[in-house]
Amino acid sequence: MSPLLQARGLSVGFGGRPVVDAIDFDIQPGEKLALVGESGSGKTVTALSLLGLVQGARSSGQAWFQPPSGEAVDLLSLSEQALRGIRGQDIAMVFQEPMTALNPLFTVGEQIAEVLQLKQGLDRRAAWAGAIQALAETGIPEPERRAGAYPHQLSGGQRQRAMIAMALACQPRLLLADEPTTALDVSLRSQILELLAELQRRRGMAVLLITHDLNLVRRFADRVAVMERGRIVEQGAVGEVFARPQHAYTRKLLDSRPERALAPAAGAAAWLQARQIQVSYPVPRPGLRGWFSTGSFLAVQGADFEVLPGQTLGVVGESGSGKSTLALAVLGLMPFSGELLMGGATWSGRLSEDKALRRQVQVVFQDPFSSLSPRMTIEETVGEGLTVHHPSLPAPERRRRVLATLAEVGLPEADFPGLLQRYPHEFSGGQRQRIALARALVVEPRLLVLDEPTSALDVTVQKQVLALLQRLQRERGLSYLLITHDVDVIRAMAHQVLVMKDGQVLEAGPALEVLAAPRHPYTRQLLEQA
Length: 530
Prior knowledge:
Elements: E1 5-14, E2 17-27, E3 32-36, H1 43-50, E4 58-65, E5 73-74, H2 80-86, E6 91-94, H3 98-101, H4 108-120, H5 124-137, H6 143-147, H7 156-168, E7 174-178, H8 186-203, E8 206-211, H9 214-220, E9 223-228, E10 231-237, H10 238-243, H11 248-254, E11 272-284, H12 289-292, E12 294-307, E13 312-316, H13 323-330, E14 337-342, H14 351-360, E15 361-364, H15 368-371, H16 378-389, H17 395-408, H18 429-441, E16 447-451, H19 459-476, E17 479-484, H20 487-493, E18 496-501, E19 504-510, H21 511-516, H22 521-529
Parallel strand pairs: 3-8, 3-9, 6-7, 7-8, 13-17, 13-18, 15-16, 16-17
Antiparallel strand pairs: 1-2, 1-4, 4-5, 9-10, 11-12, 11-14, 18-19
């Protein structure tokens, strides 16, 4: 059987610098090939170059694709007009972040229908019916209603299903899936994976999966190709490569599981104490009643927990379980009822009174690229907390503290010339997360709220960031409230764990005990899916 896609000597460069360097790979009809490697290895650029979507790049080599009828064509030699006929029709793509890939000004149904009108020449009514059918095939509940929703009105998993529906609307022969499950929790990740596998089997479609998640590769792919610095260093059947890796880089990726290196329990009194924490949101009532009053949605129900000095409380659960809402309440950014004491103090809701406590409770968000201002230099970003909490600090001392904190998180000025005057976009994902961590640490807090701090990072960088957090905890005696859906991160980082679902704490206790012998069926389900 001749390959569906055959790449030979595929190279992609920017300004004379190659980022993909003469790689060879094949994809057979109906096959699932995973392309794995760290950020910057060239995985995404490889996929985008097949469809001519890499702006400002020079591509060379050959990428022979076999259309449904006729002779194979070299994708790299086709004109833009010819490529437009293939994009979405014969080769489709699912991008990593559906919130940025979907147009916020149009409903998801309109965006899928547009593809059907452009590619298959359907009229508006037939295209709309096709959009609803495409959504139904991905398992979205109430597809007729969801088709009329805008992207921000859907959950993360629903947005990803809408992206898959759009990509598969024209029944392509090859799907390029770029990190399709990275930002999803374990249960949604499992659902999306099963959905892709089912649609792939049903349609006989080939899939090129781009990912850094090795568990995903084990469960989904037939073959794997490992990329390092623009080159494919190893490829073969998944079972064979994972069982007997030949290249040192493959072994490094397989050995990048987070390691547990925590300080023992100190036996001190809890610094953070929470009793019967409850958070509710106002929601409109259906019908005429909604004109005069609103209902409420209970997002967190009666949560009890505490965090000791120098220890980590991990909060795990799927999307919508109430994890992030609980974190917002701890940060004083969400109204709540119940008792919340941090060092004997609590939030008053008045800026001047909360300022001292605000310095002691800092946060590191999931995506450092969106949480760091693109208009502020690194010196301004990291030093902003000092300007707020220590306004009388002389500028030379403020700069000294900024440099010391950046060095503490692994970004010394000696290794990054002009570090303070650079901007976030000039750094990698792992380096940006270190900058976000330095911004929180520079004011010397007692508690860090870590909201999915490594979910957007590849496995090797994730391991480095977690090791850094463990070292800082040991050296500074920091307490962490860790919000995550990654069981491996909980196992490596947490002293205690809360398992949440639908706003309720279903199980709590020492992390290793809960993970080794879970009592609640939901906890067992999370562990199985992970």
